[in-house]
Amino acid sequence: MTDEAKRLSIGEFSRLTWLSAKALRLYERRGLLTPDLVDEYTGYRYYLSAQADRARSIALLRRAGMPLERIGAVLDSAGRERRSLLAAYRDETIRAHERAVALLDGLADDLTGERTPDVAAELDVRARRSPAAAFVSRTVRTTAADLPTHIERSAVALAQRAGASAERSSPLVVVYHGEVSWESDGPIEVRVAVADPANADSTEPAGSELVVDVPYGEVQFPTILRAFDAVRAAADCDGRRPSGSPREIYRDGDPFRCEVAQRFVAG
C-alpha cells in the first residue's frame, strides 16, 4: 500500500486536515466524506490520505458559509458546472451581505431616533386585480433562520416537477399559512405557476389584493414584517375584509423584486 493509499485513523486524519472528529462524523452522516473503511467490530473509522483534499475543500466552503446540502453538489461537480455553482453562491452571498448592511443601517436609524416611528405608514399600499392561477406547490415548516433555503429548494424542485408546463414568466409565490419567526415554523406554501390546469396541484380564482413593494434591503426577517403589517391593516379597513393568507411574490428583475400581498373582499 502506497503512502497515498495508507489508511489513517480518524484521529490521524483529523490532525492531517485540521478538522475535528466531530466534524468528520457530521460530514459522514451527510454523505459528504465517507471513510474508506469502518471496522465492523470496533466501529473505528479509517480514511485515506487522498481524501484530505476533499476534506479541506469542505472546510473552506463551510468557512464561506455554504450550507452542507449545497457543498455536496459543488464537490460532486467539475469544470464549468462547478464554476457555475460557486459563482451562483458568490452572488447570493454578496446579496445577503448587502441586505445585512441595509438592515444594520435601518436599525441604526431606529436606535438613534432618526426614522419616523410609524414606518408602516410610509409604505405605498395599492389595490389591484390578481389573475386566476394554476400551480404546483409544496408546503413545508420552517423557522426564519432556514426560510430562504427552504424557499429556494422548494422552488427548484417544483420547477423541475412542472417541467415544460411551468409558466416561466409568472412570479414565484410564497404563502404564509402560519407565523414564521425565530421560534415559529409556519407552515409556508411555495407555489410555481403552470400553464395547464391538468398538471396543477391546485388553482386559485381571480381576486382583489392589496400589495406593497418591499425595498431590496428589507427582503428578510424581521424587516419585511412591516410590509405584512401594512397590507393586513389596509385589508381590514374601509369596508374590506382579509381573504386567505398573506404572501410574498417574487418577480425576476434587476434587482430581484419582492412584493407582499394580501387578498381581500369588499365588506
How would you describe the overall organization of this protein?
This protein has 267 residues and is an alpha+beta fold. The protein has 3 domains: 7-67, Orthogonal Bundle (Multidrug-efflux Transporter Regulator, Chain: A, Domain 2); 77-115; 122-266, Regulatory factor, effector binding domain (Multidrug-efflux Transporter 1 Regulator Bmrr, Chain A), CATH 3.20.80.10. The longest helix has 34 residues, at 79-112. Strands 4, 5, 6, 7, 8, 9, 10, 11 and 12 form a 9-stranded antiparallel β-sheet that branches. Strands 1-3-2 form a 3-stranded antiparallel β-sheet. 36% of the residues lie in helices and 23% in strands. The protein has helices at 10-17, 21-29, 52-63, 68-75, 79-112, 147-162, 225-234, and strands at residues 7-9, 37-38, 45-48, 126-130, 133-140, 172-176, 188-193, 202-204, 207-213, 240-242, 247-251, 257-266. The chain contains 7 helices and 12 strands.
Mean pLDDT: 87
Shape designation: elongated
**Strand percentage, roughly?**
15-25%
CATH class of the largest domain: Alpha Beta
Examine the coordinates and then state which fold CATH places here, giving the name of the CATH topology of the largest domain.
Multidrug-efflux Transporter 1 Regulator Bmrr, Chain A
- Give the class from helix and strand content and strand pairing: alpha+beta
Q: Please write the string of helix (H) and strand (E) elements.
A: EHHEEHHHEEHEEEEHEEE
Gyration radius (Cα, Å) is 24 Å
CATH superfamily of the largest domain: Regulatory factor, effector binding domain
CATH architecture of the largest domain: Alpha-Beta Barrel
Q: Write down the oligomeric state.
A: single chain
User: What's the main sheet like?
Assistant: 9 strands, antiparallel
| Low-confidence regions | 116-120
Spatial gap, N to C terminus: 81 Å
